[in-house]
Specification:
678 residues, 24 helices
Length: 678
């Protein structure tokens, strides 16, 4: 799922909550650098009972994979989470003390990040509570509530967990992208065990060569659903499947998918769910590709979903995928705009500034829609994308097409939570820019996401013999840059007005203002002092913004100026900036199509990684005064069956307000994996 990420939005009004006439409460709390929002599911009540059942079953499947994501992020995560949850639930001491409050914040951050590492920086979270407090707190909990291993005393157990939490040298980084070291050995993600970069690379080179010699399909996504381990000096692959790794959770996922299959809306959807079940049972990557082809062909069902090992951002080699799920249904009215985009896909592909040899000669099966999310799971919960484009396999995109979505109710929740927070007024270059953003920003942002997902990721083609893993640790950032540049290039194209997608190209200018301000300055609020940029989407934005800023200096395309001791950036030539976006898109498409690792590395390391330390300090100081958390996560709606005798008469939706309560409920009802020994 290639993800369009968003930092801040504005505009709109909110209405209904659980009770008639009561304003819906989007923002519920803030802790650390995070805030918790709720999202509504408008239109759920109008669905048929069969569609509601389908959402209910798929939502249960989405929750059953939760522990998989934790364990993939780091082998220690489930042990630490279960321990902290036992303390949170059973601590008999002073729950108003500073230590307990800091402990609660740590646990909430652990839930928010799906583990002990920050979800963006991937740095290990440092506890604010004392070691002595933690030892006493663990010892105050009945031992039967702690995840002790066989024969382990509480003292030994406490020492073990304390060492993991408090020792900064243990698992310091979930995903290392530092090319100076071995990416796998420096990363705490649980995709490799004792295997270094060279060994992993050689393993898959030999595996692909062996498959090719045997006449087997080599288009599969090698390594997508497995852990690579070294046993007795030999590297081998352990597959995530029923009967294999994560079987306890996967069997539950399969159970709920089986119920969903029985209430599928269309024959195509029934076939795709059946193939997904086969994939989970066998672990076959051929079955995974067959599922994706069937999933792309299912265009008529209102309800849709994502479920599986999909995104590779968490693997420094961009091969192994983290588990995730999103359950949704189509917003028919809003989808009209994305249909216009997909219907004109060939125009956009043909007229892009990229070299003809890297363009698709025909565009197949691109579908786009606006969706309403009903459930988030795994890597997408509680933090979530605002746009999705799948499948990721380039050959399936080329031969069968892809699905692209913009998640409207999530975007709307972000929008509502940002009203009146002062962020735009603080960092915009002028009052006129603020007015422009407030009038056009929401529409421009939504359309940019549409273009990014529907056309950006689906554009271009690889040369024969080129695979995405040739870009290695730079693949994700280059791919997100490519999609962003495609959207940015066209958001200021007169074709947008001609197709009725925008009322005015002022909206395109508003998007340029927002993107450049974010890429050059405001996204720095997400980085701790002294740190470099590491997350793929942030590198994407930094790369684009800094490259065009440098390339446009001779014509003063983007101007940096100081007013009242504060730094601002102002665009002086929007069409000149568009031309620069086009130039960079041309080069990044070439890099992608040719698998040019050296050029990808040079671009990323030159423009995307390093931070202007003085500007960073200034931005953090200005942002701190606004009292805004830079990251947002969501509380899911809750679904329950309404019975009439032995039959389900309805599915009722409610909107919980407390993040900790939902997380504890999920841990109680959806913890299927052992904390050790997977």
């Amino acid at each position: 799922m290639n993800i369009a990420d968003n930092l801040a939005t504005s505009g709109g009004q909110a209405t209904a909550d659980n009770s008639p006439g009561e304003k819906f409460k989007f923002l519920t709390e803030q802790f650390g650098d995070s805030k918790i929002l709720r999202y509504q599911v408008p239109g759920f009540e109008n669905l048929s009972l069969k569609q509601k059942k389908l959402i209910f079953f798929l939502s249960r499947a989405a929750l059953c994979g939760r522990d998989i994501t934790y364990d993939q992020h780091c082998r220690y995560n489930l042990l630490v989470r279960h321990t902290c949850e036992a303390v949170y639930e059973g601590f008999p001491g002073d729950r108003t003390s500073a230590d307990f409050k800091d402990f609660t914040t740590y646990l909430k951050e652990l839930w928010f990040n799906n583990g002990i590492h920050h979800h963006y920086s991937t740095d290990k979270t440092q506890p604010g509570f004392s070691h002595d407090f933690f030892v006493k707190a663990v010892n105050s909990v009945p031992s039967y509530k702690l995840p002790l291993s066989g024969g382990q005393t509480v003292e030994q157990f406490t020492d073990e967990v304390s060492e993991i939490i408090f020792n900064p040298g243990i698992a310091p980084k979930r995903v290392s992208l530092d090319p100076a070291g071995d990416l796998l050995l420096a990363s705490a993600c649980n995709f490799y065990d004792g295997v270094n970069e060279k060994e992993a690379g050689e393993f898959y080179i030999k595996l692909r060569a062996s498959d090719k010699e045997a006449g087997r399909d080599t288009r599969i996504s090698y390594g997508l659903n497995s852990r690579l381990v070294k046993e007795n000096g030999k590297v081998r692959e352990l597959t995530w499947k029923a009967g294999g790794l994560y079987t306890q959770a996967i069997e539950k996922i399969v159970y709920w998918l089986g119920l969903a299959k029985d209430v599928a809306e269309t024959a195509e959807q029934e076939a795709s769910v059946g193939k997904l079940i086969e994939y989970y049972r066998t672990g076959s990557l051929l079955a995974w590709d067959e599922y994706n082809v069937l999933w792309v062909k299912d265009q008529d069902a209102l309800v849709d979903f994502v479920n599986g090992f999909i995104e590779t951002y968490g693997d420094p080699r961009a091969m192994k995928a983290t588990w995730e799920s999103v359950v949704n249904f189509k917003d028919i009215e809003a989808t009209k705009r994305t249909k216009i985009i997909s219907d004109n896909a060939l125009y956009f592909e043909s007229n892009s500034p990229t070299d003809p040899q890297y363009k698709k000669k025909e565009v197949k099966g691109i579908s786009a829609k606006v969706i309403t999310v009903a459930q988030l799971g795994g890597e997408c919960d509680p933090t979530t994308p605002i746009g999705i484009n799948l499948p990721n396999a380039n050959w399936i995109r080329a031969e069968h097409g892809s699905k692209s979505v913009t998640i409207d109710n999530i975007t709307y929740a972000y929008d509502q939570a940002s009203l009146g927070n002062g962020f735009l007024e603080e960092f915009a270059a002028s009052p006129d820019e603020v007015v422009k953003i407030k009038e056009y920003g929401y529409a421009a942002s939504s359309l940019t996401t549409d273009m990014h997902e529907c056309l950006g990721h689906a554009s271009g083609q690889l040369l024969p013999g080129v695979t995405h893993d040739m870009l290695q640790n730079y693949h994700s950032s280059i791919e997100e840059s490519r999609a962003d540049l495609f959207a940015l290039y066209y958001i200021l194209d007169p074709k947008m007005e001609e197709l009725g997608l925008l009322k005015s190209l002022k909206a395109g200018e508003a998007e340029y203002d927002s993107f450049m301000r974010n890429g050059l300055m405001t996204q720095l609020v997400r980085i701790r002092p002294g740190k470099d940029i590491e997350e793929a989407h942030m590198r994407d934005r930094s790369l684009i913004a800094h490259w065009v800023y440098e390339q446009g200096k001779d014509k003063n395309t983007i101007e940096k100026f100081i007013r009242d001791g504060r730094t601002y950036f102002r665009i002086n030539d929007y069409q000149g900036l568009r031309a620069l976006f086009g130039r960079l898109l041309k080069e990044i498409q070439r890099i992608t199509s040719e698998g040019d690792y050296k050029a990808a590395r040079e671009l990323i390391e030159t423009y995307a990684v390093k931070v202007d330390r003085e500007l960073h300090i200034e931005v953090l100081e200005r942002y701190k005064k606004l009292n805004i958390a830079p990251y947002a996560g969501f509380i899911n709606p809750a679904y329950e069956t309404v019975m009439k005798g032995d039959s389900v008469a309805d599915i009722r939706i409610t909107y919980p307000e407390d993040f900790a309560t939902q997380m504890m409920e999920y841990s109680k009802n959806y913890s299927f994996l052992p904390v050790r020994g997977r």
